[in-house]
Structure formats: C-alpha cells, structure tokens
Amino acid sequence: MKNYYICIVTNKPRGTLYIGMTNNLVRRGYEHRNGLLDGFTKKYNLKRLVYFEVFNRVEDAIHREKRLKKWNRQWKIELIEKVNPEWIDYMNN
C-alpha cells in the first residue's frame, strides 16, 4: 500500500508557510533542504518540515491539501502548534 503525505514547511517558527503534497516525504524533505526545487520554497528558504499528515488514497491527500491552503494563517499555525509546539524540524530529528 502506498502512502501520500501533505506537509507544511517553513523557514522559522511562525515564519513563511508552504503546504504541499508528496508520495515520498523523505525525498521531498531532502529536496527542500538542499534547494533542489525551484519556486516558492527555494525563494523563501523553506527547509523546516514542521507538520505532516499521512493518507492511503491520493484523492484524500489532494483534497486535504486544497482545504488547508484555503485556511487562514492563524488556523495553520494552531494546527502546527497542536502537535509541534516547538516547531521542531521533523527531517532533522
């Protein structure tokens, strides 16, 4: 069974936030950390994985990603801080 992930990356606690989806969280974390992906995350130096969710169906992951992107900033911060109050980088632990 394949897993799909939505993830939130940032540059610092309560900093710029990016929400994305992937089928390989480790690979995507490596790509962000090493600046291998051109675009928003590279431009704003977003390398810290502070939140993720796991799904079995790609459709569910896509739906959740789209919903989270519509949330206001404060809701996103509260979501992160519910499970990661210290804004620990999951890819660096």
Describe this entry's structure for a reader.
The protein has 93 residues and is α+β, with helices and mostly antiparallel strands. It has a single domain, classed as 3-Layer(aba) Sandwich (GIY-YIG endonuclease). 40% of the residues lie in helices and 23% in strands. The chain contains four helices and three strands, in the order ββααβαα. A three-stranded antiparallel β-sheet has the order 2-1-3, sandwiched between helices. β1 and β2 form a beta hairpin. It is globular, with a radius of gyration of 12 Å. The chain starts with a strand and ends in a 10-residue tail after the last helix. The mean pLDDT is 95.
Give keywords:
alpha+beta; 23% strand; 93 residues; GIY-YIG endonuclease; 3-stranded antiparallel β-sheet
Quick summary of this structure?
The protein is α+β, with helices and mostly antiparallel strands. The protein has a single domain (4-92), classed as GIY-YIG endonuclease.
Quote the beta fraction.
Answer: 15-25%
| CATH architecture title | 3-Layer(aba) Sandwich
* Distance N to C terminus: 26 Å
- The whole-number mean of residue pLDDT values reads 95
Biggest beta sheet attributes: 3 strands, antiparallel
Q: CATH homologous superfamily, by name?
A: GIY-YIG endonuclease
Oligomer kind: single chain
